[in-house]
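Progress report, Aim 2. The chain analyzed during this reporting quarter is listed below.
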Amino acid sequence: MTVEDTSGCLAQLNVTVSSSSTPTPVISNVAGNLTTGSFNSYQWFFNGDTIPGETASSYFPGLNYGVYEVHVSNSAGCPGTDDYCFSPVHLSVSGPTTFCAGANVTLSVLNGDSHLWSTGSTASSINVTTSGTYSVTASSLLAGCTTTMQQVVVVNPNPTPTISYSGGILETQSYTSYQWYFNGTPISGGTFSSYIPSLGTGQYYVVVTNSNGCTGTSNPFNYFVGVEELEILECSVYPNPARTGEPVYLKTSQNKFEPLFVQVSDAGGQIVYELVVSPENGILEFPAFIAGTYFIDITSNVGRTCYKLIVL
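Predicted structure tokens for the chain:
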């Protein structure tokens, strides 16, 4: 900046200008004590009126419900404010907020006179079964103000194990723990990802636990002793390929009084259809399939065969 001195001469004057950001205090309720951050000065207010002598960074309101406000300034003298609704309203949870699919938790507002949840509910409680951040705005007539609270809920998925059979061994995918069952009874020592079905003909399934502590149960696998040594059944599946919504038939030359165990799995190994049946006139009609690849496993007391079915 250029100025003129008393002699009429021009002189150059250098001026340093500094700026400071506006402070942004945030009031927190810590065990009933209202506190804010570190600033140069403080002044607390209650329902718009100055609280004499309350010029510290925190203030204990006791049971005086209402709106508290703090005015602060930083070292540059810049002002900032924040307000807080101190009321008896608080959020309660009925149990853990991290759990496995199939469980739930109830979130409740206590001592509120009206409520509006982020779900749109106006009830005092909501039941939560899915992951998310749930918030509620609740008012208190006693305090004369509203407060907003939130709770994060995490729902972990359950594992979905499947059983494959190869080389005389039942096997499932990799999980944290396993328990194999035979005809509904736990198998002693059957606590690994694979199991040799040494207990004979019957239903085997496995219950697994993943790293989140969630459990899942496979579909049962129907095992027949000596199935690999049995002869190949004379059967046919038609039409193959089939069309979506079109019936599919199994034809066998086996005696109709001899039962067949039929199991249909999709390309992912999930069992979609199974039954024990004696086909009338040697023909069994399946329900219509949706598009995909399926494996049809047919077993009797004398033989076994398997077909790959394509549905367009």
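The first strand starts at residue 2 and ends at 4. Residues 226-232 have pLDDT under 50 and may be disordered. These observations will guide the mutagenesis work planned for the next reporting period.
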